[in-house]
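SAMPLE LOG
Freezer: B-3
Tube label: C17
Construct: single chain, 1174 aa
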Amino acid sequence: QESEGGRETHRAAERETCDSAKALSASSEFAGCTSQCEQASAMSLDESLGQRFSADLEGEEEDVVDAEESSNEGEGQDEDEQEEQKQEADASGEGASGVPWSCSYNADEVNDNVFEELVLPAVLAQEVQRAWSCFLSSADSREAAGEAIYAVLFDASPSLQSLFKTPRAVMAMRFTNGLHQLICSLHEPRELKVLVETLGFQHLDLEVTVPRVGIFRDAIVELLSAEMEDVMTAQVIRGFRTVLNYVGGSYIYIRTKFADRLKVLSSSWALANNKAVDTPGEEVAERVEAVEGERASCDVGDGAKQAESEKGPDAAKSKSRGKSWSIKMGRGRLSASSKDGGMPPDSRNTSIPQTFNDMFMFNLAVMGMSGQTWMNEILASFDAIVTNVANSYRLTEECDMLSLRIAKYRRNINLSQYQTVMLASLRSLCKEWDSSHELAWSWLWSNVERLIKVSIGKPKAQEAALAHFIQGLDDNVQGVIRREVYSKFFALAPKGQDYFKQSTTRLHFIADKLVAMTLDMYRYPTKMVEDISALGLRHVGYAIPTELFGPFVTACVQVVRSLTDDDAAEEAFRWSLGLISRICVRVVAEGSTIVMRAINANSAKLLKRAVSCAPRGKRALWMLNVQVGTKSISPFIWAIETGGFDAAKAIIVDLLTIRSDRDCYYYGMDILFERHPDVIKQLCVNAPSLLPTLLDGLVWRSRTTEHGQRRVNYFVKHLIVDADGQFSKAIEWTTDNQDAKLVCHPVVVLVTDMVWNKVAFRSFLIGKAWFLFTLLVFTLSQCVLNNTERDDEGALSQNVLIISVLCRVFIYLFSGGQQVKLHVLETFKAIRAKDFIWYNCVPMPTYLSLWQHAASLALIVVLILMLGFEPLLNCLGSHPGRIISEHCERGDRLLFPYSLMSSAAVLLYFMLLTDLSVFSTKVSAYVLVCARVLSELALSLSGLFFFIVAFACAISALEQGDPNFDGIGQSMLQLCKMCLGMFSGESFVELETFPALMFFVVIFMIVTVVFILNLLIAQLTCAYQATYLDMVGYARLNRGKIITDTMPSVSAERWESFVENLRLDDPMEFGEGDLGLPGGVQVLEPACVNITTVDVIRRFGGSTSPAAEWPQEDVRGRDDEDKFERLEKTIGKAMKRMSKASRAHGSGAGSSMGGSTGSSGGSGSVCASGGGSD
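STRUCTURE (predicted):
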């Protein structure tokens, strides 16, 4: 009783301190051991949490008083024995601070009869925390400390090894983080109790016993004592033992008290939603994964595992032709996916509601409560509430968010009405409903209702006060907030300076955004949860420690408190910012995986080590999806966007490595392309160097050959067909990348050739057939009929003129009209999309950047000019005896301009005809080479033109009498003839009469013919050699572009027939009788082309469970980094041996000389030694 009275006095003092530090209560939730104010402020938040599982309900079998009385009776100690224990504790240094120990817990026994707050003396708590900090600092990292704890616990007792089912690296970090949180909370008994309570619910499925707690306790204490002999005094050891006894006893008490109740909630909730039972506790969830994973993954001959993330705006979604599965990374649960909580498709169309949501809405209407629309908000969050009933912090967060959403409704809200409808719905769905179900669900809603009532009604007033405060901030005050927030934060947490690397203006923007978010949390709570979750996932990628959120909240609250006297505004800001930081901390905690840590370090070795402990059924998802709520982040894409190319390459190699056991083949191609359908585009834009690695992983070559042929499997399904069954954009993305070497990769060559030969060629030929026909008609009209026989007056016959008129009408209407329609549509698309490029300040649609479209537009302009100059049209009716004529006064004047336009149109038609070179790769390559060397020819011609103009002007200035060089124009003409070899010999003889002119001509010939023309030959030779290496690649780029432009015109029936004939869903053989993976095409290649001596497939024996890890692979000699590391170790060992040998040789020589000296002068040495002793 005296001890209990002392605790009450101590709690009253802490409550008084809490009232003075109320503004800091938000930050104390995340930094429990940062400052005294933050520690005290946590009391106000945890008062409601402390009563959460201790308050008794009407009709419960026992209450807290009975439990305490039974625990006191179980102790079997009278007051004298308690007094002796108290004296022994005082004698051993316990209670030295004047604060009494908790009488229920000690360092020797594990008390599992009660669950109270653990109150340690302040001095002892500080010593324990200091010892723990020394242990963490003595290790290389927290991971190393966790490995040490894991090793000592695993080796403590063979009987406990069956409890270690989580991967070693993951479990080691959980040990470290859990112990760190417990020890940091020793100054806050209430917070410590809530933390232990939360951890206890996570261990409900484990059979925690007093002997096992003792084994764990002794192993950890012995480890700490061995590592830190100086720090681990007897008092500190007793403190650690007391804390571990308290934690272990609490686990046993919670398991005994609440395990059955939580299991009832979990099983009945799963039954009400037609989904697998999710028993509380992480190990049970993993066992459920293993059982369901075996059903989902092991489809013999198929082996492909489909994964679908939670539904949400940014959640990853995937579909498979067989089964669809959803894996939730945050809690590690695998269940059949459907939008209605996993409901089978055949049960959705029944008249009776089959899920809780449907049954709740049905009962809501039957009970006449349809107008209570606020219940929809609770219904939307109820799954998260039930799922996280064992997590106090998450449950409080969900209830706080629920109070914000409910505050938007003006009518009076009676929360008990929801309980009535809830219980009625559950009774209808759960066939085995009994009193235990009634008690469990009433207990759950009682706690939820209590947490909601704490905040209900407050958000409206808080929103108004905070809005008034923010709207009254002028520029000067906003500048103060921007500066002071960071100055105070850096003062509270100097470590935070290492993570703020942006400019000052960027930091000011973040501060302004933070202030706006606090108000938006009241106004748009649902949207803000999504945005904050995305923000938290970005902090995961930045590797921000969660310990910094508390000081940052504290700094913000202190700045706001200094700027306003409105307590309501300050409280509203503190509460909103606290909720935001809680969500961020949760997201960061749930999203911080060992894979993300390896990516932040950009280390391929760390990444391999991280995924080596993943279950084989979820190994790919560890690298592709980190799910938190409805938001997800891809470690792979994050590595690419942040420049972690080493880690990204390791992810690609690991995903596209084929592994197999006796039952299944595991290959990450399907999951990669379903999680990231645009992975080719992502790599083309952000990491082109990783594209060959990705494409190499899509090829499997057999090590053995048959009849001189080798099996080659190309897994090209996702490069041909997208998720909707349409033509994939992979070829378009690789073509737009303009990498001539990439398109020559065997995978790209196979895909483009298959699509071209079997689908696109026919459609392209049909499209070009019309163009060929119009070209023939145009040639007939302008080149053939124009040169037929004429009469004496030089006019064509009427029949020829009629045919010519028909051909020209066809050209103007159908050929020109089709081109006009095409360009009008493309121009409107460009205007609507604002897709323009600028040429000398003139905007042009982007599609005209292709020379084919530009030439087509030029052809339209020429045809329009031809129509304006058309002689047949201008001479219509000019001859009374002839209906059609092309000769008249007006027509004769326009005949020559018309012929020029006609000649230009012919050249444009034939220029566009070069597209047909795509039929042959060789011809296309030659055409492209010619086009690429034209630039060198243009440079030479421009240089030649410069010299012609220069020498023509010089000759015109010379006093000479040769009529061929009379003036600049005439001189330029003659110089051009000289360059082209058209200047006659007689004209050269005439130049001898003019020596000065002859001198200029000789110099010109040397410069142009000898220098410029030979330089042109050298330029063309070098350009051709440089282009020749990639000319096939350029030809394939051209073919890929034509395929992309042609595929929209392919009919759906033809495309479906092509895809069906590929049989991409049929497994391909890896060998005779070895049925492998689907999703590709198998071809045979000559055995001498790509010699393969190693089996690419990694085959393993042992267990075939998808929940099992892959055995450790022997990768010696495969990693260049490992080779260098081994080389360094070998050199280091050799140098050590050499240094030891040299020291041994020197000591041997010294000892021989010392022996001879000692024999001759022994007396001197004795005196020396005696003097030294004196």
